[in-house]
Design goal:
Length: about 550
């Protein structure tokens, strides 16, 4: 089976925080799982390098937008590498390949009958001397009276236009913008309402946030959206008369999934359209990006009448991750930066916490106390402890050779069932339950070790002791595969100690006469004083 895993493209105007990682990490788990199943996987994403946020940062630092976006792109790549993200291609929207793909896509899009020219009011800040994108105009929502941005009210979910805001202000300087008419190209999303509604209703198994928000966009009325903007940093509009404008980033960044897959197909000699349309597709992002993947991207694909594109299948849309009970705020310095946590802590420990305690179906909170307790209690106390004491016992009393004995039949059956049970949960996007299913088994494996008491049977019942430890080695070997999508680094350590290299998603047994190499601990205990240290750093950054 062909599989496309599409991770959201983070803005390259500032560092990633743990909320970004929590939303994107499910994509890596799903990609690793499908590879282990033997599927052909394209796991793609990249840095969103265009748009006003990048140009603003560039102006603040007296650099070019390209210098800023390239700097953060490289930082993102390093963060993802440290945390074990296994992208097949992580690119950037400023790449030549992406710009060429988008230019060709838009040129054909304009010929499909769903793009029209119209004049609209565009916000311009005379104080900043620049046009403002919708999200950089703030004010009061005319529908609920709460604070809102020019594109959407997060309080009531209403889709807005900047000129509809009450008491509109420039987010950059706080002064009132003026609204000037400007001619742009628009995508006639309203003409696609029936097709979009049928598409959304055919996916009743989506996560609740994706389904409810998508239905709301349909029910409250779709609006045609400008696909060009008066900007000087972005992709040129492939139409005469639009030389001073750029393609609006929402109409090009979501096409990065296609451009990345196109590049991979070119490299591997595959037909892009055939691969795209024959793939099961997962789109992984935070809930604020839902409409871009269930409304905007499908609209762009449906509007191309020269070719039929498969629409997104699975929407893996996370809720929000808060920090010590408060909303993460990059401007307010209330954040844990991905680059810092990746450098200071074991990557598998970070991955475990953000999956086991992540915002899969509801908002969840990151606290240093829970993170340290999770590491010491589950990662080290349950998983690491079982692996270490089992292998150390074999090394000490069996000269490092795994005993040749009959495995416990009940555990053999349970292990075989785990592959199908966990696999089904991963495919349906229930990663938290999948990980808990494995760790529930790990806890039962520790209980098995305790009840079998090999430290006693080693003295008076060698056959029983051999069976116990052979079974424990069997468990550890299979855990290295079952946990690899979630905890790839410790899985590799285990396979290195066992002298195996197995990645197939299926129950297996170790070869006879198998020897283990030097046993090393999987995880170091974290001192609880770290809690106070990290909390003090966080408070000091406010």
């Amino acid at each position: 089976m062909n599989i496309i895993i599409a991770g959201a493209w983070p803005y390259a105007n500032g560092s990633l925080h743990i909320g970004h990682i929590a939303a994107l990490l499910p994509g890596d788990v799903i990609a690793r799982y499908h590879r282990a199943k033997g599927d052909k996987v394209f796991y793609v994403s990249g840095s969103d390098c265009h748009g006003t946020p990048v140009t603003i940062r560039a102006r603040q630092e007296n650099k070019t937008p390209e210098e800023i976006s390239d700097y953060y792109h490289e930082e993102f790549e390093e963060c993802f590498r440290r945390l074990g993200f296994s992208y097949d291609l992580y690119s950037k929207t400023s790449s030549t390949e992406h710009k060429q793909f988008v230019t060709d896509f838009h040129r054909k899009l304009y010929e499909g009958g769903f793009v029209f020219e119209s004049s609209s009011q565009q916000a311009f800040c005379e104080s900043c001397n620049q046009s403002l994108p919708d999200r950089y105009v703030t004010g009061t929502c005319p529908n609920c009276g709460k604070a809102a941005r020019g594109d959407q009210c997060e309080a009531c979910g209403s889709v807005l236009e900047p000129e509809n805001l009450l008491d509109a202000k420039c987010q950059l300087c706080g002064k009132s913008p003026v609204f000037r008419p400007s001619t742009h190209l628009f995508l006639a999303i309203t003409k696609l309402k029936e097709a979009l509604n049928l598409y959304i209703e055919s996916h009743a198994d989506w996560r609740r946030n994706a389904l409810e928000l998508s239905r709301r966009y349909i029910d409250e009325g779709l609006r045609d959206r400008a696909i060009t903007r008066d900007l000087d940093w972005g992709i040129d509009v492939p139409k005469e008369g639009y030389e001073s404008k750029k393609i609006y980033i929402w109409a090009e960044n979501v096409l990065g999934y296609l451009s990345d897959c196109y590049v991979l197909c070119e490299r591997q000699g595959l037909d892009f359209t055939v691969f795209w349309n024959s793939s099961r597709q997962y789109y992984v992002h935070g809930k604020d990006n839902i409409p871009f993947h269930t409304i905007i991207l499908p609209s762009l694909l449906l509007a191309r009448k020269d070719v039929e594109f498969r629409l997104p299948d699975e929407i893996i849309s996370s809720e929000y991750l808060t920090l010590e009970g408060r909303k993460i705020s990059t401007s307010g310095n209330w954040a844990i930066w991905a680059k810092d946590i990746a450098a200071r802590y074991d990557a598998d420990s970070v991955r475990y916490f953000l999956i086991a305690n992540g915002p899969e179906k509801r908002d969840t909170d990151f606290s240093w106390r829970e993170f340290i307790n999770s590491h010491n209690g589950e990662i080290l106390g349950a998983y690491g402890n079982f692996v270490n004491r089992s292998l150390v016992f074999i090394q000490k009393y069996f000269n490092g050779q795994i005993p040749k004995a009959q495995y416990d039949t009940t555990i053999k059956q349970h292990l075989a069932e785990l592959y199908s049970n966990v696999g089904g949960l991963i495919e349906s996007g229930n990663l938290k339950e999948a990980l808990e299913t494995i760790f529930s088994f790990i806890r039962s494996a520790n209980k098995y070790f305790d009840e079998e008491q090999p430290w006693i049977s080693n003295k008076n019942n060698l056959e029983k002791c051999s069976r116990t430890l052979a079974t424990c080695a069997l468990i550890i070997a299979n855990l290295s595969v079952l946990l690899k999508p979630f905890l790839p680094f410790s899985s590799k350590k285990i396979q290195d100690m066992l002298g195996i290299d197995i990645d197939n998603w299926a129950y297996f047994e170790l070869p006879e006469e198998k020897e283990i190499t030097a046993v090393s601990i999987l995880f170091e205990r974290l001192d609880k004083k770290i809690i106070v240290e990290e909390e003090d750093k966080l408070k000091g950054g406010r």
